[in-house]
User: Fold this.
Amino acid sequence: GHFAAQACSIMDQASKRGTSWYDPRPKQKRRRATSNDSRDSRDSRDSRDSRDSRDSLNPWDFGDFWTDASQQSAWDGWDSWTASGWGSSGSKPENDSTPSDPSDPSGPSNPSNQVKSPSQPEISFQEARIAALEEKLRNALRAVTSERNQRQKAEKERTKWKELLTKVSQENAKLRADLQTQKGISSIVLSHGACWQYEIDGTWHALPPEGNDKMHEAYLAYIRQKPGSRHATISSGGVARIVDFELMQQKHVSTHRVRGIRILPGVPSQWVTKTEALLQQGNDLQAFYVEVNDPHIHAAIEKVLQTTGHAKADVATACSLMSTARIQSVHRIENFRLWHRYQARLAAMRQDHAINDVSVRSAAIDLDGNGQVMTNSQAIFDCGEALAADLDEKILLHGTSWGNADSIVQDGFDNRTSQRAMYGGGVYFACAACKSHQYTCQVHHNGCSCKVERTLIIARVALGDASLATETRYEERRPPVRTNAAGTHDSIVVHPGMIKGHHRHRQIHQEYVIFDREQAYPCYVVQYTV
Assistant:
């Protein structure tokens, strides 16, 4: 077969050169061509195709060497070559290793058909293209890495904000529950101050006023240990329930459904007196005084005594005495009835502001000192109950004697005891201890140095819609009338500076005046010496 393929290549070349063909097979007798030969030759060409066409492709006569066996082997190779399509396409089979004829212009050995080696500029150009593609690939990888990092960072931020949102939602739910509680407390008649609530699906709801009063009356009987007072049937809104005060539960009479109940005294969170004791407070002064030994509270009070106002002024002034003040005792006042009277006054002030469309501005403090001591102490002395910003509630100072302090602790501040005062017949407060110190001695005034215990009351004061004083008001018994709304102001604020009618023509200390006895609450009573 290999030999036949090589022979056929030679025959192809001979055919291109016009060489006559020689058929080594046994010759047949030739005859003269006739007129029918044209048609017969066409028919014979179509019919014989591949078999007879090979009769004209043998250029050599090998004599005796070309035996019948060798002829058959050669023509078998020819059939294989023509079947592979090489003879018609002129291409060499891939598995053929026969060297091509150098004279064949289509052969791979022809110089015109050989692949030229690239020149140095072409190599440089291709290397530059590769380098550019590699750089693009690196840039793409960097971009992908950067985007991945940004996605991870964004996912972390998303997780952080999700946690924050969950926390805020929880706080919001708590605030809503607290607001519901406060609404329940404010909706009842504050005859006793306590608020009863019942639980449904983990949420507490206030009883209506009717049920609240009945529950309170039955509970007082229970804590006073009256016989058979553990259970009570309370009807409210047409529904009757049996209350068990020991288990703090109530059961529906018809459905027998049980739900929890609780009582809220509605007092500051730092108060330590138990609810049962608060509800049974009478006129015993000892029940109102709770001694405070918290070093944080003591340190804050000592700083107020020694540094507010003009305590650090020249030693020749009376105010300088306060730099030597020393605390003797501190008591927190836990007066249940007085506290709820104060809260009722705050509610009345809010109602007045709403009706008359009054906006409240915050009054300044620490204007007669060298620091922000009282400003920084507001939250320290609030007893765990945040100051009401909408009413400009402030922590202020009130100096008095020990005897007057007991009366204030039991019944509150009383503006009716005020004598002829510079800014009207009210209760006066200050934010400088040296000013309050002037009223702590029953014998002397203006800050004497008597070696007796002095009393300072730290109070919550609702200034509300305050009027800024520009002149004295000796004969007045009520606050000034509003100029831009109906009603009167809630208080008077006096700043240091020129005041018309002042006997010295100038106000030295900052002062605050209220004209309603329920508008302040005594938080702490401090005994000190100088």
About this structure: The first strand starts at residue 195 and ends at 200.
